[in-house]
Structure formats: C-alpha cells, structure tokens
Design a protein that fits this description.
Enolase-like, domain 1, 7-stranded mixed beta sheet, single chain, 3 domains, alpha/beta, 5-stranded parallel beta sheet
Length: 454
Amino acid sequence: MAKRRYDVVVVGGGPAGVTAALSAQNTYPEKSIALIRREEVALIPCGIPYVLHTLAGVDDDIMPDQPLKSKGIDIIVDTVEGRDGDVLLMERSGKISFDRLVLATGSVPFVPPIPGIDLDGVYFVRKQRPYLEKLKDAVSEARKVVVIGGGFIGVEVVDELVKAGKQVTLIEKLPHLLPLAMDPEFGDMVQEELKGMGVEVRVGESVKEITGNGKVDGVLVEDGTRIPADLVIVSAGYRPNIELARKLGLEYDERYGVIVDEYLRTSDRRMFAVGDCAAKKHFFTGEFSKIMLASTAMAEGRLAGSNLFSIKVVRKYPGVLGSFSTKVGEVAFGVSGITETAARDLGIDYIVGTAETVDRHPGRLPGASKVYVKLLFARYSHVLLGAQVRGGDSVGEMVNMFATMILGKMTDMDIDVLQIGTHPLLTPSPIVYPVINATVSAILKWYNQGKGSG
C-alpha cells in the first residue's frame, strides 16, 4: 500500500523519471520517494522501433523496475488529475502529498492534419505497451506499408519493416532524409542505403490524403500519385507532454515544453521538470530547441535529482548539444553539435574538414567498414562546432567522443595532437585516423585560404 505522503514524488516512468528518482535517492537517502506512472510497465523508448521485428515481442523492450525497488522507491501506477497546494489528486488512489515534485511526463506523437489519419490501419510510434502490441500484430499481417516521416524514428521503422519482408514506401516532405539532424549528403547516403534494400523513398513530397473506406487502403501524395498500402505508420515528430503542467498551473510553452531554469526548476520552485516535457535551450544559440533525446533526459534527471533540496551540484545546465546515432541496414550514421546547414543559417563563419578510411587496419580484416567523417570548425576561434559520421558499429562511440570534444571546446590544434589508442582489430590506422585527418583537412583549408599567416 502506497504511503500518502512522500518527500519526493516523480511523475513519469521513462528514462528521465527513473534517473531523477535514483539520483534523488542517492543524494538524499533519508528521503521517501515515489514514482508515479500511468503504465503497468515502462518501455525503453529508443528500443521501440525494434519491437516490430528484431525483438521477439514488446515485452523484450521493458525497462526493469528492479533498480527502483532495490532503492526502496515506491512505484504507483495511477494518473495525476491535478493538485491542491502540495497535494496531488489521483485518479484512483486518492491524494498524495509531496515536498518536492519532478515532472517527467515525456512527449507524445505529433498528429499532422492529414485527411484520413484516423482510419483503421493508421498507427503512430507510441510509448504504450498495448498499443505497440496491436501495431506489431498489424505489421505481421501487412504486406504493403507506407511510413510517413523520414527522421530517425521513421528510418529505423523502415529498416525493421524491410527486415520483416514488407514492401515499404517512405515519404518525407523535406528534400532529404534526417533533415533536421544531418546535412543533405548524409541524408542522401541514408536514402541510397534504403533504396539498396528495396525501399521506395520519396523525398520532397507531402501526403495529401490517407485513403480508405473505414480501413486504410493507400496514401495520396501531392502530385496525384496514389501508393497502395494496408498499413500506414506516421512518424512526424513529437511534442512535449504538457498536459499535467497545465493542470498544475506551471509556466510552459506549447511547442517547447515546461519552462525551467538552469537547474531544471519550474515557475514553482518546489517543482522540477526533466526530459522531453521540459523546454530546452540550444547549446550554441541559447534559443529554444526541439531536440528530445534519452541521453539528454537522463542528464537532466541526474542534475535535478541531486539538487531537489539544496544545490549539491554547483553548475549550470549547458543546454542541449544534440548527439544522435542510428543504423540503417549495415551502415551506422551519427551526428553531434551543429551541421553545416545550421551553421550557414545562423551566419556562423566556419571551415569544414573531411576524411574517409576504413575502421580496421589493414582494411582487409574481417568486419572492416568504410568510415566517412565531416567536422565543422569555427573559422577564427578554431573550436569544433559539429561532427557527422557514417560507418560501421564504431560510429556509436565516435559520436560520444565528438560530443566530449565539442562540450570541451577543443580546437583543431587540440585534436591534431590528440594522443589516441589504436589496434588493427578495433580502430582505423593511426596514420589515417579519420577524426584527426578530417581536422588536418580543415587546418589545411584554413591556411590555404590565407588565414594562417603570422
């Protein structure tokens, strides 16, 4: 039986909420803590696309409760309807009072205003176990599938559907895939990879209508082409879930989320907001950002959990950098920081360096993959602004290295003299190490343009 009063109440059972609860318990072990979530089980958000084929079922993507239970954190499955002062009004379990409250209510899929989007057979990528089980069943019965949206989730869903033997069409209204995360040449690489897998990719096209009489039977694009489909999956982005923040009377922005300060405190200083529901500022511009990542959510959860009752971690949250990675077929793609497109739009003066090699030496070793790296440096301060990479499985950790470099404000010369560890079976050759060689490429461009004299 749940207690009626807790020192700390966390609302939301995703990565941000779980991390905030664990951080709070680690920092304040004497405090009583409860985590409230709507679902019986919590899913691992980044693993959701893989329940469609790679994982045997949705239950293989469940986030375990043991870390919470082992710390004495109570899990309450219920819905918060509102509050009366420091008392939460619950849908089923009466009233629960708190001293500190953490909102980690996540995000919800954006539903674009497309006629026919409410037809039977049209699905979204939701973080709900029963819904995903229905989607998985629908995928197993489908033959022709249309995916609307060419961002990371859409591309990963397509990859899974192809592996499941489906005939797939991917539609993205912008001119290239991964349009908000990577530069056009990387989006084109993803597109070529998918085409090689048999996917029909249509970029620069908008969906005019989803057709069908009760049940979906196709998608009509703006040029009049009708694409037959017995299943449509919409992945058009996510919006912060501000439903509870609105009920609690907190300050929020409809597009970006709950307004927080550098320590994740809301307009009510007893309440914090972390993860997708919290508004974020971009690391470079300081402007609101739509970037939503589990890694960012967990960083926010750790910071908020540590500082609930007093500032234990004396630092400002630096803003959202944006580090992503994904895998399409056998090729991985990653990005950290700003792209060349974004730098151009922001009016930043920059230099680009590129390098291509293989991630083993010699390159004939088993498992070797081609690696292409693109780095973006500020022209005059020489600091690393952004990095993009295509290659094998090593891309995942390379992105983390780039994030560390950018956050640490490393310059081209810092990277040029970086002391690295290499091994034939694990890394590229030290002679052609792509991160350093891409940096040298940028340095040479800088000097060749006459900026290095003196």
